[in-house]
UniProtKB/TrEMBL annotation:
Reactions catalysed: UDP-alpha-D-glucose + 2 NAD(+) + H2O = UDP-alpha-D-glucuronate + 2 NADH + 3 H(+)
Keyword presence, Oxidoreductase: yes
Keywords from the UniProt entry: NAD, Oxidoreductase
Top enzyme category: oxidoreductase
Binding-site residues, substrate: 173-176, 228, 273-277, 281, 347
One Pfam family here: UDPG_MGDP_dh
Similarity annotation: Belongs to the UDP-glucose/GDP-mannose dehydrogenase family.
Domain of life from the UniProt record: Bacteria
Keyword NAD attached: yes
Name of the protein: UDP-glucose 6-dehydrogenase
Active site (record annotation): 284 (nucleophile)
One example GO MF annotation: UDP-glucose 6-dehydrogenase activity
Annotated binding of NAD(+), by residue: 50, 55, 106, 142, 176, 287, 354
Length: 465
């Protein structure tokens, strides 16, 4: 696909029906707010529904309550035009239209690795009794296979007499940091349906996107649910493969960056999702591979996915190995050491800190007695809400000045662009957890650069105790 980083709408005509299709989006977090704003951008009348009144108050006032490039502009523009509205009232949403997208969260359960589908069930249970005419519920949340069929049953039970409620699934593949472009120009649209009328309704809705050449793939409910989790499991596996090889490089003295570049030139392998380093985090990949393993267990086929246990274990080891490297570079203990952590978001381009590897490392070092100061260009506030006891710095300079060790844990462009000669730590030692800094440039400025899966670069003296 072309223009992957462009956040302008695709070059297609917007829907030109005299009466714009009215769509509701239930759950207006990272996924739902993006979906709602992009549907408004495509010309539809959209009503967003969320159970969080603070979030709805922000959105209704045209303010995006989180950071996502290009999205605030869409929300502002379409709330101003009236094409995008928000409510906390399920009855209002039920009366608004006959197409309802379900985008609520499916986090990992507290008591197991399985996904918590209670929000999806609650959303359907709140909406369906208010419906006054036939309606289609379209799930976008990432769910264990079988959820859609269960929701159809629930909807049948709760539908008012004479009202037919269908359930279809339309998994979402957007990446945070590129959510608007991924929504307006996806690699594919996948729909799981049980009725040709549902396929027709979704084809019509997605016509402005699909007419620009995007494949529209129609399948059954179970396959559509599985497509989503299989895609995330594959991506997680690719990353953990690179990180497993990085462990081997450490043992043998190889360089994982040169290695993954070399294997990535094979078109069958490709370069994407082979960046070794601190590993994957966020609100999706970690919980989705665990939920997939849990569901496979319930279905009696857990052997098929035992490799995902290793994918998860390799990934979690990246965090402990980064902590161990920091301890080593501090001469065996971080107690009383001043450590600057560059990055808090789980990846650049977002303020999302859910299961952030950077914050996990920062918290572990603090537990071991280090004085940690974190700086992230966008995620200081969300990080401080989740880890209020960590120290936060408004600038890179504030974080780094006087530090015994610098950890680079989220590869924001701002960090890559730093001039290492201008920084004033107590000791010039950096651990690049993302293999993203120009190690030679940092070494030329007198820094010792450590990374996972790569030989050390720069002055060899370790930090004295
Ligand atoms: N974030 C992503 O990049 C992304 C991409 C693809 C798929 N997904 C999937 O989409 C789903 C949502 O993820 P997210 O990142 O947007 O989560 P999120 O936590 O940002 O948003 C979920 C929203 O749902 C709301 N909600 C919960 N219960 C509700 C209810 N009963 N009625 C109305 N609103 C309710 C919450 O208040 C919240 O605003 C998950 O299943 C996730 O796996 C997320
Ligand atoms: O080579 C790589 C690529 C990514 N990561 C890490 O992997 C995590 C996830 O990155 P990414 O997949 O870009 O972010 P998400 O926004 O979580 O998107 C994933 O999860 C979404 C929710 O399911 C899906 O929609 C997307 O297709 C899928 O890429 C982050 O911590 C990255 O730092 C690596 O360590 N190495």
């Amino acid at each position: 696909m072309t223009h992957r980083h462009d956040t302008t709408p695709p070059d297609v005509t917007t829907h030109d029906a005299p009466e714009p299709i009215r769509v509701t989006v239930v759950g207006t977090g990272y996924l739902g707010a993006t979906h709602a704003a992009c549907l408004a951008e495509l010309g539809y009348d959209v009503l967003g529904l969320d159970s969080d009144p603070a979030k709805i108050a922000d959105l209704a006032a045209g303010r995006l309550p989180f950071y996502e490039p290009g999205l605030a502009e869409l929300v502002e523009r379409h709330t101003a035009s009236g094409r995008l509205r928000f409510t906390t009232d399920p009855a209002e949403a039920a009366a608004f239209g006959d197409l309802h997208f379900v985008c609520v969260g499916t986090p990992q359960r507290r008591d197991s690795m399985a996904a918590d589908t209670s929000h999806v069930e609650a959303a359907v249970a709140a909406l369906v009794p208010h419906l006054r005419g036939d309606a289609l519920l379209v799930g976008k949340s990432t769910v264990p296979v079988g959820t859609a069929a269960g929701l159809q049953q629930l909807a049948d039970e709760l539908a008012p007499a004479g009202v037919e409620v269908g359930v279809a699934w339309n998994p979402e593949f957007l990446r945070e940091g590129r959510a608007v472009d991924d929504t307006l120009r996806p690699d594919r649209v996948v729909v799981g349906v049980t009725d040709p009328r549902h396929e027709k309704a979704l084809r019509e809705l997605y016509a402005p996107v699909v007419d620009a050449g995007v494949p529209f793939l129609v399948t059954d409910l179970a396959t559509s649910e599985l497509v989503k989790v299989a895609a995330n499991a594959f991506l997680a596996t690719k990353i953990s493969f690179a990180n497993a090889i990085a462990e081997l490089c450490d043992a043998a003295g190889g360089d994982v960056v040169a290695l993954t570049d070399a294997i990535g030139h094979d078109a069958r392998i490709g370069h994407q999702f082979l960046s070794a380093g601190l590993g994957f985090g966020g609100g999706c990949l970690p919980k989705d591979i665990r939920a997939l393993m849990a569901r496979a267990g319930e279905l009696g086929v857990d052997e098929a996915l035992t490799f995902l246990r290793e994918v998860d274990a390799i990934n979690m080891r990246r965090r402990s190995r980064t902590v161990a490297l920091a301890v080593q570079e501090c001469g065996g203990s971080v107690l009383g050491r001043r450590i600057a952590v560059l990055g808090a978001a789980f990846k650049p381009g977002t303020d999302d800190v859910r299961d952030s590897p950077a914050l996990n490392v920062a918290a572990q070092l603090q537990l071991q007695g280090a004085h940690v100061r974190v700086h992230d260009p966008r995620a200081n506030a969300t990080a401080a809400r989740m880890f209020p006891t960590l120290g936060y710095a408004d600038t890179v300079e504030d974080a780094v000045t006087g530090a015994d060790l610098v950890l680079h844990l989220t590869e924001w462009e701002e960090f890559r662009a730093l001039d290492p000669a201008l920084l004033a730590p107590a000791r010039r030692v950096v651990v690049d957890g993302r293999n993203a800094l120009d190690a030679d440039r940092w070494a030329a400025a007198g820094w010792r650069v450590r990374a996972l899966g790569r030989p050390a670069v720069g002055p060899l003296a370790t930090v004295s105790p």
